[in-house]
Amino acid sequence: MVTETLRSWAPGRVNLIGDHTDYAGGLVLPMAINLGTTVTMQPGGNTLHLRSARRQSLHLDLPLGGVLAEDLTTLEPAWGRFVAAAALELASTVGGSGEVTTTLPVGAGLSSSSSLELAVALALGFDGSPLELARFGQRAEQVASGVPSGIMDQLTIAAGVAGHALLIDCATERHRAVRMPDSVEVWVLHSGVPRRLADSAYAERRRATEVAARLVGPLAEASLDDIEAIDDPVLVRRARHVRTECDRVRVAAAALEADDPTEVGQLMLQSHASLRDDFNVSVPELDHLVLELSSRGDVFGARLTGAGFGGCVVVLARPGTDLSTVRSDAWLVQAGDGARLL
Ligand code: GLA
């Protein structure tokens, strides 16, 4: 029997504002982008063989009964860990042979790994709602990376809407599309610093927000007075970031809808300062880049985006601005639709 060739697509994402709030039940305002991963696959058999133009090919004996022969965290080539985690979570026993291509920079903080997981899941026959796909992807990402990440990346990738950002309440996992006005363009610039140390520090930051929440309640709505009264200055700063960042996200979504990019830009700069000073997830290269960009007349605002510790800044700029002269690793991105079979 000749089976049909399947093609799936999953975008990457960039977060406009609201970082290190998703796992604390807070608000985020990311968008799926027009860069992403395509998987082309001929289904069949019980092994998975995927070629990559950029990387070593992957050959995987599929996990019969949900158990992989290899230890996932040491699987080589490393990109196969994300593929294997997707196959494992899906309890897939039907494999295939095909190719993976991506237009995303890998490891830059634009969710290349989640994009890969969701594209593989769709090619292997995942059938469910965008929220189910997102929850699936979050589990796969946690298994593959060992990092206790939140749901922002996967929900954005699964539920993205062209021309819109998504305002997500991570406590309820409900979201709504917020139109991107014609008065702005979104750029992503790499700081040149790889996201080293991000994994262990990420887990440590998440733990701190959980300890603080046990003292003052859910941080997204805790009283700032209660937060300031916590008897540990580090916990105060961590909790204050989450609480104030959620307010900034709410105001930024309203400002985007009111076509007020100046206000959104100011909130992005405040977000960066809070991530730098209260959450301590910035690095000097990111700070310099944000400072340089914010002094330009054609930029409304800029901030580190994603987990931090290196990686990229997101920039809200006037249409027609060219930021490729600032960094060679610069991408003008559009808000795109979510993951799907093509
Ligand atoms: C990473 C995680 C997300 C989120 C961001 C920080 O991208 O995967 O869940 O926590 O960091 O906002």
From TrEMBL:
Which EC class does it fall in? transferase
GO annotations of cellular component type: cytosol
Q: Where is the Galactokinase N-terminal domain?
A: 10-43
Keywords, A to Z, come to: ATP-binding, Carbohydrate metabolism, Galactose metabolism, Kinase, Magnesium, Metal-binding, Nucleotide-binding, Transferase
Return the InterPro entries for the record: Galactokinase, Galactokinase_CS, GalKase_N, GHMP_kinase_C_dom, GHMP_kinase_C_sf, GHMP_kinase_N_dom, GHMP_knse_ATP-bd_CS, Mevalonate/galactokinase
Alphabetically, the GO molecular function entries are:
ATP binding; galactokinase activity; metal ion binding
| Pfam families for the chain | GalKase_gal_bdg, GHMP_kinases_C, GHMP_kinases_N
GHMP kinase N-terminal domain spans which residues? 86-160
Q: Name one GO biological process term.
A: galactose metabolic process
Write down the EC number. Answer: 2.7.1.6
Family to which this protein belongs: Belongs to the GHMP kinase family. GalK subfamily.
By what name is this protein known?
Answer: Putative Galactokinase
The lineage, from the top, is: Bacteria, Bacillati, Actinomycetota, Acidimicrobiia, Acidimicrobiales
